[in-house]
Design brief:
Blueprint: H1 3-13, H2 17-36, H3 41-50, H4 55-58, H5 67-75, H6 80-89, H7 99-119, H8 131-139, H9 149-152, H10 162-175, H11 177-180
């Protein structure tokens, strides 16, 4: 699957810069996790990049999330494993035991926590935070409420500690800090 083609689909379906940045961050984390687990980095990365392609189309009806993605991705001849991962991430903590599905669900949730952590620093930069800072924020329920802690903790099903997962995720996001504006 060609990344440029995927980016052109995002241009068509995703108008929000923040949502695009979220999807880029998820891609970066998924690529790092694929390397960590000796998986196909392109497949995992593309799944991360495309996972919320239908988010804006769903508007207030979250029951459509994932279903509209499936239609878009099938029409564009995406591999079935990517389509299944995109559909599975919507299930949240009820995700199946497929490692890519678990990774996508966790990566989707953790990058919001990391971005929120960077944004509260005066520098508004990923370089201004570290793993311990994010671990402390993780424990604060009022901080970044949209970052589902249970979904983040699914990383443990992959054999990663929360600390290791956050470290991998933060490092991956730092690699694309310019694209993220952080």
């Amino acid at each position: 699957m060609d990344r440029d083609f995927v980016l052109s689909l995002l241009e068509r379906y995703v108008k929000s810069d923040n949502l695009r940045k979220h999807m880029l961050a998820t891609e970066a984390i998924m690529r790092a996790l694929a390397r960590r687990f000796n998986q196909n980095e392109e497949i995992w990365g593309i799944a991360g990049l495309i996972h919320d392609i239908d988010y804006e189309l769903c508007e207030d009806d979250t029951t459509k999330h994932g279903k509209l993605s499936e239609d878009i991705l099938k029409d564009a001849d995406f591999p079935e494993e990517i389509i299944e991962a995109v559909k599975a991430h919507v299930k949240g903590v009820e995700v199946d035991n497929n490692p890519m599905h678990i990774a996508l669900c966790s990566a989707d949730a953790v990058n919001g926590l990391i971005i929120a952590g960077a944004l509260i620093k005066p520098e508004k930069s990923l370089s201004a935070i570290d793993t311990n800072f994010i671990l402390k924020r993780f424990k604060e329920k009022a901080f970044a409420r949209g970052a589902n802690r249970e979904e983040i903790k699914l990383c443990e099903k992959l054999g990663l500690s929360l600390e290791e997962f956050i470290s991998i995720s933060l490092s991956a996001m730092r690699e694309i800090h310019e694209e993220l504006g952080l």
